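Hey, quick one: can you model this chain's 3D structure?
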Amino acid sequence: MILNKLCHKNILRQIKIPALSQIAIPRLYSSTDSSLSETVDLAYASYESTSDENCSRPPLIILHGLLGSKNNWNSMSKAIHRTTGRKVISIDARNHGDSRHSSQHTYIHMAHDVMKLLKKLDLSKVSVLGHSMGGRTAMVLSLLCSDLVSSLVVVDISPVKTSPQIYSMVSLFDAMSGVSIRSGIAMSKARKLADEQLKAIIPDINLRNFLITNLVQTNTGSYSWRVNLPALKDNFQSHISCFPNNLKGLQYCGPSLFVGGSLSDYIGRYDLPEIQEYFPLAELTFIEGAGHWVHSQKPEKFLEVVCKFLTEK
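Sure thing. Here's the predicted structure for all 313 residues.
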């Protein structure tokens, strides 16, 4: 079959964490760059029950988007677990949530972080679902380590193009960096003050509420953002905002579902042929009335679409 000829030979035959410099495909990286072998430990939440031991389906790994965290997926993780019976593991990306910070923030690094965690958890086969930044990490993981990925779900992002809206993220980094809150006040008051300061730049209350989930109080009573804003801003233009262009020629030939919001422009309705250059078995569906945050704007329909795919594939 032509499809079989298109599929690349698996780069990683076993669950192991090679130095990033050992992967020959990404031509931008040299073996002399020691920072490429640096993975970080990732925080995660696991949703499972005693009956999961009898489930033959691999666990589902969930990867959140930029400035998000595993907590944003708490309700959806529980719902997917209840509906499919699969164990669900929701992960904080580097520089987000409870995971460690790093000056490096590329999709290659983030994919290797996930590989490291899966090795730690002794998982040899998983399904992966990623939204936005997490969707690109999921795509890179499946391209670099296809034997590891049983099926792939990518939410409102693609390897083909980038929405012009994504470049507004820089203004969010700046707005968050400019927030100043005095120490020692209650969290409820601190959230209110943060909202007031962000309002001038970010009129969307839902977006402000999303960003403020990153506000934390330290042991000394001071307030800070748990996301690593300097690293995200430094890596945004060159790495976060675009899909790696040095993975062309690789393919993941497993079941793949791309889910877009009908009101979002992160995935074009005619992008499927180009998506299939990386993911030959990819299907593309749109959820009506949803924007970029498909899972939170239309949760019931999103759950139905994703669980149907996970059950059938």
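One thing worth noting: The mean pLDDT is 89.
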